[in-house]
Amino acid sequence: LSLLNHGKVMKKSLSLIIGCAILIGCTQKKEINNYEVAKEQVASQKEHNHDHEGHNHEGHDHTAHSKPAASKPAASNPAAFEWAQPSNWKEGKKSSMRLASFNIPHGDKTADCSIIKLTGQAGGVTANINRWRVQVGLPQESDTVIKQHIKEVKSPMGTFQFVKLINPEAPDNAILASMCFKDSFVLFVKATADSATINGVENEFIDFCKTIKN
Predict the structure, then answer these.
(1) Using alpha carbons only, how large is the chain's radius of gyration in Å?
(2) Which of 43, 75, 108, 164 is 20 to 30 A from residue 115's alpha carbon, by CA?
(3) d(Cα 214, Cα 209) in Å, to the nearest integer?
(4) Rounded mean pLDDT of 40-55?
């Protein structure tokens, strides 16, 4: 009986030892698997870095996706005209009649600038200026008087006929306008605002007209 009990105790002890060994083995195996996964992640990152470092960077701009696009010195439009847009001029309201629109800032106000192309001679210089004079509340004038107030502005496309129209009695509505007459079309550049804003943007408006070409 004593030997039988001793055998049972030995068998239980042996089972306990085997069970502990299996538990320890499983624990070690799990730790190794976790470590191997970590090694694979590190290796993957190294491969990514290696591929990036070995990439041919010639002609590739890595700042293009992080920096805002620089403002272009010249803008083109569907009618094949080009001009140098001042950096502070912003795109204005769109219209089917306009090739382009800009908001010209001056203090806390802006002038609305439009570029329009019309075929033919569009009525000529005097007719257009008289139409604008009426818009600001000024009387129409003769061709002789109109020509006295015109300033010529040279551009690569040709000569613009420039005029500034301000009505002292109605200072809230004033105009800057340039016209370049070609054989088959006329290009109009026009800015509208109150008289103070028009006076403030006059020089940059003229400078802009000097850059237009086709």
Answers:
(1) 40
(2) 108
(3) 12
(4) 34
Contact 9, 2 (CB under 8 A): no
Q: Tokens for 146, please give them.
A: 């109109």
- Say which amino acid occupies 168: P
Query: Helix, strand, or coil here: 121?
Result: coil
For the chain, what is the total number of helices (H) and then of strands (E)? 4, 9
CA distance 35 to 45: 16
Predicted confidence band at 38 (pLDDT cuts at 50, 70, 90)? very low
The helix, strand and coil proportions of the chain, stated in percent and rounded to the nearest 5, come to 40, 25, 35
Is the whole model's pTM more than 0.70, yes or no?
no
Q: Which strands make up the sheet holding 185-193, listed edge to edge?
A: 90-91, 100-106, 109-119, 185-193, 174-181, 158-165, 151-155
User: Amino acid identity of 40?
Assistant: E
Question: What is the pLDDT averaged over residues 62-86?
Answer: 53
Which residues, at least 6 apart from 122, have a Cβ–Cβ distance to it below 8 Å? 128, 186, 188
8 A C-beta contact, residue 102 and residue 91: yes
Q: Tell me which range, 64-78, 79-93, 169-183, is most confidently predicted by mean pLDDT.
A: 169-183
Q: What is the pLDDT of residue 47?
A: 33
